[in-house]
Amino acid sequence: MKLKMWFLFVLFFSFCYGNEYFNNITGFVNIKIPTGFSLICNPLDSEDNSIKNLFDPEKTGLSEGLIIYKFDNELQQYSINILEFGQWTNPDELLEPGEGAFILNVGEETTITFTGNVRFGNLSQVVPSGFSLQSSQVPQTGEIDSDLNFPIEDGDIIYRYNNQIESYETYEYDFGMWFDEVFKPNVGESFWVLKLNTTNWNRTFTIY
């Protein structure tokens, strides 16, 4: 799925004290949500990462009946959150950077604006064996392994949902290489991973 997005840093703050660097970036990401199903994530760390804040219908103009299916990688099941009468059925459910969810938009294509801070420093998230829904904790695109440091291994498969064809695109890795092409997630996009072995997705993200 090719999510159309624009990313803008609206504030950059960095200073050095001795050998330590302190960084803070606040910004926003605009992500187009097409009609139908799409896989999304929260690309920025807000003060409130709840569904009611990230997908506030008064701010976003989301249509009634919109549904968010958040997948629990540990329990291997979905939670279902429905926008009804201007309220979410589970308003305090969280969608943290690094997590993912299906969103079903029953209305016309719309745009959601995410605001918050870019996570930096030493970042880690569990990638269990079997199927899991993953996303980058940092709003960054690029090759999933070389640029985003995803721990790809032989036998792993990544699935991207394509809203336009209502089906999946597969990216297979074996014998130390990608078949056809390298997976490059878009900012604001989550994706399925089928992994043989449980591991951690570790990376250090710094900005000077």
Task: Give the SSE map.
Elements (H helix, E strand, L loop, with lengths): L4 E13 L2 E14 L2 E5 L10 H4 L2 H4 L6 E6 L4 E8 L2 E2 L12 E5 L4 E8 L3 E7 L2 E5 L22 E6 L4 E8 L2 E2 L12 E5 L3 E7 L3
Antiparallel strand pairs: 1-2, 2-8, 3-7, 4-5, 4-7, 5-6, 9-15, 10-14, 11-12, 11-14, 12-13
Summarize the structure.
With about 210 residues, the chain is mainly β.
Number of helices: 2
Mean pLDDT: 89
| Ends distance | 32 Å
Q: What is the count of β-strands? A: 15
Largest sheet: 5 strands, antiparallel
| Class based on secondary structure composition and strand pairing | mainly beta
Question: Could you give the order of strands across the largest sheet?
Answer: 3-7-4-5-6
Cα gyration radius (Å): 17 Å
Q: State the shape.
A: globular
Report the sheet-strand fraction.
Answer: over 45%
Q: Helical percent range? A: under 10%
Q: How many structural domains?
A: 1
Oligomer: single chain
- One letter per element, helices H and strands E, the order comes to EEEHHEEEEEEEEEEEE
Low-confidence stretches: 1-22
